[in-house]
Q: What sequence folds into this?
């Protein structure tokens, strides 16, 4: 049990903070804004302002809100993978371990993820675009 707790701490290291790059600042800004208002009410200018970036610098780092979501997904993937191999003897246990890591990594972004989920329920095309973006990479 202690092993799980220590891995949880290390897997969340830096999950809620920007690493100082424009891309990280954009991710944090978008997720923060999503906790306050809807996806369709947020523009790149809003994200640039929240991230304290010039719009040109934001566009150079991430050209769209969907690109920011893809970068956020990559950030969470890195945290989950950094936890090492999934633990457990059975496949079900290993899957559960990975799912719990992902939930732990998403916790600092809870309000933003909830805001995004509300919009995606009303706009299934966004979920479709998001999944197509992942399969084309």
A:
């Amino acid at each position: 049990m202690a092993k799980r707790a220590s891995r949880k701490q290390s897997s969340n290291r830096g999950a809620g903070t920007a690493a100082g790059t424009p891309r990280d600042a954009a991710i944090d800004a978008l997720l923060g804004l999503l906790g306050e208002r809807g996806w369709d009410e947020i523009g790149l200018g809003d994200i640039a302002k929240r991230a304290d970036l010039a719009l040109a610098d934001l566009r150079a780092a991430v050209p769209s809100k969907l690109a920011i979501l893809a970068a956020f997904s990559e950030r969470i993937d890195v945290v989950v993978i950094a936890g090492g191999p999934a633990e457990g003897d059975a496949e079900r246990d290993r899957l559960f371990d990975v799912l719990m890591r992902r939930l732990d990594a998403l916790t600092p972004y809870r309000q933003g993820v909830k805001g995004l989920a509300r919009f995606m329920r009303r706009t299934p095309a966004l979920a479709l675009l998001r999944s197509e973006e992942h399969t084309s990479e």
Summary: The radius of gyration is 16 Å. Residues 65-82 form the longest helix (18 residues). Residues 1-18 have pLDDT under 50 and may be disordered. The CA atoms of residues 48 and 54 lie 6 Å apart.
